[in-house]
Known about the structure:
four-stranded antiparallel sheet; Gyrase A, domain 2; single chain; Topoisomerase I, Chain A, domain 4; 4 helices; two-stranded antiparallel ribbon; about 180 residues
Amino acid sequence: MAYNFSPLKTRVKEIEEWLVGEYSSIRTGRATPALLDSVNVESYGARTPLKHVGSITIEDPRTLRVTLWDKTQVKAAESAIASANLGVSAVADGMTIRVTFPELTAEKRKLLNKLAGEKLEEAKITLRKEREKTWNDIQAKEKEGGMSEDDKFRNKDELQKIIDEATAKFAEHSERKETEILQ
């Protein structure tokens, strides 16, 4: 009997998306609008994501420009970016805010590389837990008589194949981010 691996595959995809999201929030010296995703602005009494009160564009490799739709939000957005501790400087000029990314030092690059490694390890740990949960489910089905011992080991091989593919994808994302950080 073939085991239904679709919940595992869905979970693996979620873990990969989480890892990619975490990597996009790691600043690498290049301007990326994703870095400002975590910034929330006090807008008319509510905390609103920055991207909901203006548009974010890349001006040059180390500068973002935030164009706000409401001129009264400029000061609130500028202070929200400053208080987010992203290691960038924000300067308001009219209806826009220029966000400048400073050049990364060698020490900061090592720290970012270490952080990227920690995120990879978190993803791997979560993946191992999912593998363990699925393997326990396969063993339980075999004990209940829902599958033969041969099917159990075939399913174990399929499970390991899925996990190996996911680990390889995670490593690819990690290597790409490491290259980006070190450049």
